[in-house]
Amino acid sequence: MNSNPTTDQMKRGEFLRSLGMSSAALMAFYCMGTGLTACSSKSDDPSPTPGTPTTSSGLTGNAETAKGAINFTVDLTNADFSKLKTVGEFVKVGNVLIANTKGGKYVTIQRDCTHEHQDLVSYQLASDNFYCNAHGSTYATDGSVTVAIISGQAAMKLYKTTLSADGNKLTVTA
Ligand code: FES
């Protein structure tokens, strides 16, 4: 059974929205200092990327932040999730990324990078960290930023992960 602390780090977009900034103003803010070619047209709360199991017979509950609190269970005997039994593998589900990290510890983290919220984050077993292929940000498995692309870059949000007694059900909660 694995259990990880949950962080309540507010995403930068959420913070700026709380100040009343529009989406256009948010994009302008994100693009400042990074150069236009580095800017994404994605919103900061992207929909899950097609091709990942947002619906699956092995998934019960809610994995999408737009639909409410994260609270779901995946069945590791299901083909969509069975690779999670292997150390070093990861799967993206709804708005989260689940990884079986070094030593067999499950870590669940927000799937979009906190730099420009691109969906290009992966787990790297050799360095036991998360890497964003968009511009090279890296994050430790506690969500902290280890290579920041911009000053003050936010940590990744972690979710609590609980493995069932029989080792085949993984429950993820906010
Ligand atoms: S979006 Fe730029 S490093 Fe991830």
TrEMBL record:
Residues 41-62 are annotated as: Disordered. Residues 73-170 form the Rieske domain. Keywords: 2Fe-2S, Iron, Iron-sulfur, Metal-binding. PROSITE patterns: RIESKE (PS51296). GO terms for molecular function: 2 iron, 2 sulfur cluster binding; metal ion binding. Pfam families: Rieske. It comes from the Bacteria. InterPro entries: Rieske_2Fe-2S, Rieske_2Fe-2S_sf. This is Rieske (2Fe-2S) protein. It comes from Spirosoma aureum.
